[in-house]
Design brief:
This protein has 13 helices and seven strands. By secondary structure, the chain is an alpha/beta fold. Helix 3 runs parallel beside helix 4. The longest helix has about 30 residues, at about 240-275. The structure holds guanosine-5'-triphosphate and magnesium ion. Guanosine-5'-triphosphate binds near residues 49, 51, 138, 216 and 217.
């Protein structure tokens, strides 16, 4: 992986998906080589044009000589089906380019699911020397937003006639978006969508509201503007210290989740092994708090 071997990268990402035990050693060995890549989370409702945009961004970045990794993720499904097929078609022009790594990801056994698997996969690509890593997640639900917001830059894609303005607001996307894209701007009602978004952002009143970029991904329109918007914001966040702060809190949250998940699994195992606790609980001899306290002692996390 550290040598940038794409087959090694592919195998390492498979280990992430499987939640393999070998992962701990890999993670330990690549960590020092991470921190250079710019990760971009690309999210939005199905069919808004994320993959087409990603393919265009890849082409643009390649023309600058950057190496690019693309991960397509469906956090809600253990198997990425349709999205992957679509991506294959759209990404075909890059399939033979050694400077591009494209991969769809599913979680088969990683503890904590995609929210914990995705950051590790991004680190693998980072350590392998990819300058930019694009993470495409399908959908605008909580888990998709969570995965997308783990990137340095979160790009939210909408399309005209898209009826999910309220969904976007509900999912907390306004808060996490660094850049909004109104794709399919060849459609009549694109201006309307831009207006709707703008008024939603005004209501949200952030200090540094995310820019709205219009694109026509099928024709490559607006891609340079999109990249510039992403990069300018990235540079601002790097200079202000916000990037470092975000990366820090992301890592801390990841460790909290990993540790919590480890303890949860140990608690499940201990509860299973120590059948008496469950029996006493069900019979009413002890209460759930006492049962949890006993378990905490058993797994060595203190008094719980
Ligand atoms: N008219 C128009 N169609 C577009 C544009 N960009 C993408 N499309 C079409 O929209 C459809 C969906 O594009 P994708 O790139 O697969 O969208 P996606 O968001 O990745 O889709 P999922 O991964 O399935 O959620 C395809 O038929 C694209 O050709 C655009 O700018 N204008
Ligand atoms: Mg797609």
């Amino acid at each position: 992986v550290l040598g940038g071997d794409s087959r090694a990268v592919a195998r390492a990402i498979s280990l992430v998906e499987d939640g393999s035990e070998a992962l701990e050693e890999i993670s330990a060995n690549i960590m020092a080589g991470t921190g250079k890549a710019l990760s971009i989370g690309l999210t939005g409702a199905p069919g808004v044009g994320k993959s087409t945009l990603a393919a265009r961004l890849v082409a643009h970045l390649r023309s600058d000589g950057d190496r690019v990794g693309v991960l397509a993720i469906d956090p809600t499904s253990p198997f990425t089906g349709g999205a992957l097929l679509g991506d294959r078609v759209r990404m075909q022009e890059h399939a033979t380019d050694p400077g591009v790594f494209i991969r769809s990801m599913a979680t088969r056994g990683h503890l904590g699911g995609m929210a914990l698997a995705a950051p590790e996969a991004v680190r693998i690509l980072d350590a392998a020397g990819y300058d930019v890593v694009i993470v495409e997640t399908v959908g605008v639900g909580q888990s998709e937003v969570e995965v997308a917001s783990q990137a340095d830059s979160t790009v939210v894609v909408v399309a005209p006639g898209w009826g999910d303005a309220i969904q976007v607001a509900k999912a907390g996307i306004l808060e996490v978006a660094d850049v909004f894209v109104v794709n399919k701007s060849d459609k009549d009602d694109a201006d309307r969508t831009v207006k709707d978004l703008r008024s939603m952002l005004e209501m949200d009143s952030q200090d540094d509201p995310p820019p709205i970029v219009q694109t026509t991904a099928v024709e490559g329109g607006g891609i340079v503007e999109l990249w510039n918007a992403i990069f300018e914001r990235h540079v601002r966040q790097r200079e202000s210290g916000e990037l470092a702060e975000r990366r820090r809190s992301r890592l801390i949250r990841e460790v909290e989740s990993l540790a919590a998940e480890k303890y949860r699994m140990r608690a499940v195992a201990a509860l299973d092994a120590e059948g008496q606790i469950a029996e006493d609980l069900v019979a009413g001899r002890i209460d759930p708090y006492r049962a949890a306290g006993l378990l905490s002692h058993m797994i060595g996390s203190g008094t719980g």
